[in-house]
């Protein structure tokens, strides 16, 4: 998952993300089929850098900042 329904549509397009709504949810989210490394490389080329990373259960979360 790379974004929620309020994410920048242009950025989601650059990442190749598709919008979906999971059964039972009343919100949409953007997802990609790329490996995390590929998504992080695309974001780096757009000026983002990783600030921190953590694991939450079986999920990995990256915090990024754009210069």
From TrEMBL:
Localisation per UniProt entry: Cytoplasm, Cytosol; Nucleus membrane
One Gene Ontology term from the biological process aspect of the record: negative regulation of biosynthetic process
GO molecular function: GTP cyclohydrolase binding
Classification via InterPro entries: GFRP_sf, GTP_CycHdrlase_I_reg
Coiled coil (residue ranges): none
One GO term describing the cellular component: cytosol
Family: Belongs to the GFRP family.
Protein name: GTP cyclohydrolase 1 feedback regulatory protein
UniProt organism field: Zosterops lateralis melanops
